[in-house]
Amino acid sequence: MIKPTANYPVYFQKYIDMVPNEQSIFTALHEQLMDTIDLITSLDDATLQSAYAPGKWTIMEVIGHLMDTERIMCHRALTIARGDKSSIPGFSQESYVSNSRMGNRKILGVVKEFSLIRANTIELFSQFDEQMCNEIGNSNGHDLIVSAIPFMICGHEIHHRSVIEKLYIGAL
Known about the structure:
Elements: H1 13-18, H2 25-41, H3 45-48, H4 59-81, H5 93-98, H6 107-126, H7 130-133, E1 136-139, E2 142-145, H8 148-169
Antiparallel strand pairs: 1-2
Helix pairs in contact: 2-6, 2-8, 4-6, 4-8
């Protein structure tokens, strides 16, 4: 799958640009999962439940946000790839996070869920043929090409892992 250069919302650009060009998106998604799991399982419960400033998400809430976003993006990809021309609504990330109850979760359960979501993502995109990858739909009022979605997922995780490393762990 080739990194697209058009037909996605402009706010996806910063995430898509973060994904290295020299690596297959499938390899990048798999390796990224391993790196993120290594990072979060290296942290104690107090750190996982901490925020770097008042009103900011905890590390566990960030991980929950990554999982929710990946699920939503895969739904968008499937909808568009299957030729459904329905307009796909946006979502309120703040509402999702505040209702996630990530503070009640144990890290091993989160790791299992995160791994299953990522395995589903890789499998979903690996079965799309070129025509499906080039389908364009309407998501949250914007054109969205299917092939942009795995790059957005990957870049979104790169962004949030960088925030965790710099603002959460770097402050320890």
